Amino acid sequence: MDTFEGLSDFVRSNTATLSRLAYLLVGNHADAQDLVQSALTKTAVRWRRVSGYDDPVAYVRRVMVNEATSRWRRWRRLRIDPVGGVPERTRPDDAADAVGRVVLWEALSRLTNRQRVLLVLRFYEDRSVQETAELLGCSVGTVKSQTHHALARLRAVAPELAELEVVA
Amino acid sequence: MNDLRELFHTTAAEVPCYDVGGQVLRAARRRRRVARVAPVAALAGVLAVVGVVAATAPPGGDVPIVAADRPALAVSLPWLPATVGKDEGKATPLPADRAVGAGSVLYARCNQPCAPRLVTEDGREYELPGPETMPPAAPRVPTLSPDGRWLSYPDADGRYVLRDLADVRTVQTGARRVVGWSADSRWAALADASNRRVTALLSLADAREVPVTLPADEQRPLAGVTRDGAAVFGPTEARADDDPYDLRIIDATGATRTARIDTSDRLGRDKELSGFPVLAADETSVLFQVMHVRHALASPWDVVRVGLTDGSVRARFRLPVPDADVRPGRAVGGDEWAPLGGQSRVLVSALAEGAVLVHYQGPAPHAVEVLDLRSGDREVITNVAVGVVWLQVRGQSD
């Protein structure tokens, strides 16, 4: 049996979903692509075992979450661009909603890795507190308190978000 | 409006599907091949290490730690100004029809969009031309050769130019920009501007190009270029946390060799080397920074000097403990890792005079320091004025 049998199909059918999650976890395309590639490579190396799981995608997601919370390991030398450029992300320019989203997106980039990952799990993946705690390897109480702190920090770094609404 | 769920889903809908399938399969197959030969290699490695340690290791095997806290009186960098960024007035555009002399530092005061300035050895300042529009992902970072003679920058059309500042000569490098230099300023490493991937070395004397080819699925930062035209690359960015550091060296004939460095058990708890080494000017060693970890965040700390041939740690230069809050942030012009608070020192280049460090306070550069690699002495050479948001010294790679 080919060690990587079925892997190509798995990658092809799940990369789009994983790409979206990765971008939300790390906030920029370069690191998001690295994150997807790294997580899928780790999965591929263990593919014979992972392919037997009920939900192999859950394994990849867990790897991504773990990597995203410890991204300092891939710390890069500070690179900045002194002469301007086009923002990496497409931003609609014709609505107050769009402005609000930009403010919120900027504020998210000021959170710690762990806080950002926590919010993505809770409010994008709609994970329960229990599931989030299991994924992050912490207690339910920690998830609750960290969610509170993350939202408070969002409001603190961007006063425009004082009315931030989160329907838990 | 400010609903997190709405933001996440709206944003996610705009994310493209990253085409990584090919790289994943190639990397997995390569790792599998490595795993198959690992037991044999490990046995050979253990035997070799036992032999080397028995023959050469000092008692205890500790890394020599040098406190870099005395002034570096023996080091002189007269070309660096005492202060950068004091002049807030308008600078003269860099003239195309006359020489301006060697450059010493590049800096920018403003957030985007604005043009960086070149400071020359005689203290004059020139504004660099900047493109009005650029591809979104292309970094637009000008760089100066170690001798200050050559400047790589994007022109008004966004095409890269290599300018001889001691003359009016230019070399058009198009969509490729310089991301590194040899210590003698004889070679410039050209990389695709959009992805920082080095594709060739350019001989500055005769504009001859020597292709550099890394395997397609290897992403490695350039550590430096030797005087005889060998490119030294840092560890692959796909390196697992517990993997040793493998440096790749490609010489002028295209021959490749690997230097392995594993200091993970010598750095102390919650420390590891950054993935961006800098080739020392003596070309026999590379410099890393130790990452100091607090609360799952890391900031750059000590400088470690490692032998390029045997991977041995020669010295660890003890710098003040950083308290920078390094996290992915929106640095000026792009999403990058950036210190948002506290202070830290970042190793930016290694010149013949010593290693150059930029002392950051928060996200802004505060001072330029030199670290004498012979004595470990350290000195502030240049103070950076408040308001400067970006700075790059001679020989600094991207």
Describe this structure in words.
The complex is a heterodimer of chains A (168) and B (398). Chain A has 168 residues and is mostly helical. Chain A has helices spanning 7-26, 29-45, 47-50, 56-69, 96-108, 113-123, 129-136, 140-157. Chain A has eight helices and no strands. The N and C termini of chain A lie far apart (46 Å). Chain B is globular and about 60 Å long. Helix content of chain B is 12%, strand content 40%. With 398 residues, chain B is mainly beta. In chain B, the strands form seven sheets. In chain B, strands 1, 19, 20, 21, 22 and 23 form a six-stranded mixed beta sheet that branches. In chain B, strands 2-29-28-27-26 form a five-stranded mixed beta sheet, with no helix packed on it. Chains A and B meet through helix 1, helix 2, helix 5 and helix 6 of A and helix 1, helix 2, strand 4, strand 22 and strand 24 of B.
Keywords:
heterodimer; A: 168 residues; mainly alpha; globular; B: 398 residues; mainly beta; 6-stranded mixed beta sheet; 5-stranded mixed beta sheet; 2 helices; 30 strands; 12% helix
Instruction: Compute the CA-based radius of gyration of chain B.
Output: 22 Å
Q: What summary fits the major beta sheet of chain B?
A: 6 strands, mixed
Low-confidence stretches of chain A: 72-94
The helical percent of chain B reads 10-25%
Helix amount of chain A: 55-70%
Oligomer: heterodimer
Total count of strands of chain A: 0
How many DSSP-defined strands of chain B? 30
SSE class of chain A? mainly alpha
How much strand content do the residues of chain B show?
Answer: 35-45%
**Roughly how many Å is the radius of gyration of chain A?**
18 Å
* Class derived from helix and strand content of chain B: mainly beta
Mean pLDDT of chain A: 76
Task: Give the N-terminus to C-terminus distance of chain A in angstroms.
Answer: 46 Å
